[in-house]
Amino acid sequence: MLDDTGRRLGRARLGDGMAGMTRLHEMIAEHLDDADVDPETGMFAAGAVVVGIETDRGPWVAALVAAGYEVFAINPLSAARYRERHSTSGAKSDPGDAHVLAEIVRLDRAHHRPVAGDSAQVEGLKMIARTHQSLVWDRTRHAQRLRQALREYFPAALDVITAGRLELTDPDALELIERAGDPDRAARLSRSKIAAILKRARRRDVEARAELIQTALRAPALRQPAALESAYAVVAGTQIRLLAGIIAQLPPLEAVLGEGFGRHPDAEIYTSQPGLGAILGARVLAEFGDDPHRYRDAKARKNYAGTSPITRASGRRTVVLARYARNKRLGDAVHQWAFYALTNSPGARAYYDQLRARKVGHHAALRQLGNRLVGILHGCLKTRTTYDETTAWAHRFTAAA
């Protein structure tokens, strides 16, 4: 604990529970007087108690905000850079880090963002959205591991996926690969069993597909030694069961996510944006939050989304780069949003085509389109209006004409 001149008022190691929080309140109360309390609201006056902490979530953060303290979540990377300002020896300790955090919020809090005042509703939505997004990433990770294992010992299984016009993560494709197991078992798999798997998935042209799949399974191929094939089959089976478990959990999460998103007052504005549906819209809302005072302007929102570029200028050399230090979950959602907007907004498509005509790469063009879409969303939220295609893009193409 420091006062506004940097003089140490106290130091303690506090526990995570109620006892630790109670002790913190007692330590702070010893150094406050009536002038630090707003007589109208009964809350602490602005800047009376400022807290620096290296996280923006958890019971402690919620309790600090509820107590009326001004809480700043300091990025650990920023705290590490500030630590070098106090000591160049490389020494690190918890008391030293606490002192650095206190100095940051005492001297430089104007350059840091306080913890957002998001509603409990959107905080809960964020937890569900992040869990869903993590499972989607896990599905991709395990699918890639399964694909690599099959490529190593059973490439015919991948040919089966192509022949049957299936995706590797489709339930019937996973069941088919698990039943086939290895080249020997695959060669014995009957057409009737293959057809039954396709029928359970309600596929069309079952007989024709079953014939193509059986032909692919029985085609001559290079083989690994039997012991190695057996080991690979165990690995592939493990990945298949993991994938099946992940895939089974996605629909219930999506239902909860869509229901929670639909109850939020900003849902109509988000879903009016081209390319945003219930699931992707819930992700974007959850990561941006619903605190109306969190973003000073559209540029601040773009910076947080990571869509705006950064400039590095030194002497006569100036380089404009993509912003990779960002909220990666939000960045992924905005990138998908920009991609889906191409087929839902003529203005977004025209803007993307203009960038591509200037030899801008696909992903770079999507980043710039996402930057524009984030600005449009900020305007809609600020004015409490839904998306309008003409308002969003007319000025740009009128100026170009």
Automatic annotation (TrEMBL):
InterPro entries: Transp_IS110-like_N, Transpos_IS110, Transposase_20. GO terms for biological process: DNA transposition. Pfam families: DEDD_Tnp_IS110, Transposase_20. One of its GO terms (molecular function) is DNA binding. It comes from the Bacteria. Residues 269-352 form the Transposase IS116/IS110/IS902 C-terminal domain. Residues 47-155 form the Transposase IS110-like N-terminal domain. This is IS110 family transposase. It comes from Pseudonocardia halophobica.
